[in-house]
Amino acid sequence: MMKRSLLALLIPALLATGGVQAAEIYNKDGNKVDLNGKINVGHLFSDDTGNDGDVSYARFGFKGETQIAQDLTGYAQWQYNFQLNKTEGADALSGDKTRLGFAGLKFGKWGSFDYGRNYGLVYDALAWTDMLPKFGGDSGYADGFLSTRSTGVATWRNSNFFGLVDGLNVALQYQGKNDRTGTDAVRRSNGDGYATSVSYNADSGLSVVGTYANLGRTQAQNNAARGEGDRAESWATAIKYDANQIYLATVYGNTHNATPISGGFANKAVNFEAVAQYQFLNGFRPSLAYVSSRGKDIENIGDADIVKYVSFGANYYFNKNFLAYAEYKVNLLSDNNPLGLANDDVTGVGLNYQF
Length: 355
Description:
Elements: H1 4-10, E1 23-28, E2 31-45, E3 53-54, E4 57-69, E5 72-83, E6 97-106, E7 112-119, H2 123-126, E8 149-158, H3 160-163, E9 168-175, E10 193-201, E11 206-216, H4 219-222, E12 231-243, E13 246-256, E14 259-261, E15 264-266, E16 268-278, E17 284-298, E18 302-317, E19 322-331, E20 346-354
Antiparallel strand pairs: 1-2, 2-3, 2-4, 2-20, 4-5, 5-6, 6-7, 7-8, 8-9, 9-10, 10-11, 11-12, 12-13, 13-16, 14-15, 16-17, 17-18, 18-19, 19-20
């Protein structure tokens, strides 16, 4: 039977390129630097032109640590994304972007504090189902009220609750106002706000987490055709089992004025995701998932599906650094969905090298 520590080495989350895959390039006198990266070459097949074609990309980054005192450590992380499906000389809209960039201090049992571009705490729950071979992660979006990667966030995390309760983790986060302009003025702006996360990880492989975020909305967002209220609010709960080569996870949550749709935001969205995977010892990892997000009380529409699909897929790990993947997304949106969203099935295939 495969031990959980070996599984953690073999199956890194595809959205991250750090952790166990990092290549150590310097470690001396309390200073350590690890490089990490990935090249993902892939292709989508669909009758929807927006989900058809080459989707290859590369990511590169580093993690650094320096020992300042016995219980005080400085650390930093940076990661950049390069789109490989664009022409040479493509402009800034090519998709190249800084995904992460933050620095902070660890204070022993008192936890860590960092600032910069980092994951919002709502993702502490959403990450557990964001494990699909190609698709997934539909309940959050970048620069979206602390649901995934966000700019200008101050984060405090504490593991094992000050050393008193093994497996109990707490976190608090603050984000300042980002009043963007142009095409990002509505979708990617935010006012001042905060988020919190509480999780418990048992030795049996069973874990639970709850997250909550509440942020102000900007004037541009309040002036949009859809979405009312001065605050954007979201909460999510998740449970997972990760042991004995089995991975099961489900997430349920609500958002208010925080899920983007055409013309602004849904006044309310109900999100549900579930995934089941099994790791065979030969490297084969099949995956089955259901993902849905349903908007409520949308102006001039009422209730409508925003995301709804079933996914069948698999990863095949040649070793801990190289894998092949394939996934078929059965789109369950009806032909007459009132938001006019793409409702064609999509197939994704590709290869992934990471270190």
